[in-house]
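Ticket #4471: structure output looks truncated?

Reporter: J.K.
Steps to reproduce: submitted the chain below (332 residues) through the standard prediction queue, then opened the result file.
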Amino acid sequence: MNITTLHSTELPGMLTDSALFQGVDFTLIASELGQSHPFDVEAGHVLLDPDRVNHDIYVILDGELLVCLEPLMPQPLVRLRVGDCVGELSIIDARVPSAYVVAAVKTRLLTIAKPVLWQMLANQPVMALNLLHVLSQRIRENNVVLLSSIELQRAYRSKAESDGLTGLHNRSWFQEVFPKQLELCERTGQQACLLMLDIDHFKRVNDDYGHLSGDQALRHIASVLRSNLRSTDLCARYGGEEIVVLMPGSDLLQAQPVAERLRQGVANAPLVLADGRALELKVSGGLAQWQPGTTLDDLVRSADQALYEAKSSGRNRIMTSLLIKDLRASQA
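Returned output as attached by the reporter:
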């Protein structure tokens, strides 16, 4: 850090673009400017950090500063340029800085000590208003950073919860969300049904058309299901060619038409392959009604049993199961 010699009469011309000094009569703060010291820092110099108490406000006369969560962070949160100031938050609330401030290039700064700043504000009240504008801008910048962070977290979470092939929710999401939805149904006294779907003769699709076409078939069926689901239905890829759909607020009589619509939607939408061939796809489904006091594992077993019956009965159909009720009766 190098102290730079500047005459106090030179500073007003260098501060005309600073938000902090807009509308200021520099003759009324000439003494305070004389107590403020310009200095140069090299690129990479850490001006502020969360481990060091700060007692000054800094105004950029030339160069650029970066606000970062880490001192060597490649993507800064904010870039501060000529006329911007930094350090105002920590001298107002008397707490350590909340982030690192690092010189992006060789930068010239004007340092104003806390007592000197207070005297400037007393002599020129317009500076207090300017400082409020600076603080409000800083809050807005922080809000933008926060919103960007939230959006990024949502994107990461969405990626972690999505099946990479089909775009449906994955097994981990199913295991986290479905039990919570059943708990909600129990608290609110709602019914719920679980549908387990399986692609008929999917091994034959892979053997006859190749695994790439098999992947395409999975994506196609997932797309057909999404377009036929209700807004309240929850859908996830359970594993392999199995897909599960939870229907909160529906009993068997209400869920059966939905399940049948999904089955018919797949049957009526053949997949057209790249070579022009139409691949007719079918699904079988097992539908089970949840009862209060039973677990998701019980519900899955019940739906899986119904799916087995649908496969054994010729495929391309939906079978229902009352296994949950039978289970509760046997435990009574």
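Triage note (M.O.): checked the attachment and the full token line is present. The chain has eleven helices and 16 strands.
Status: closed, working as intended.
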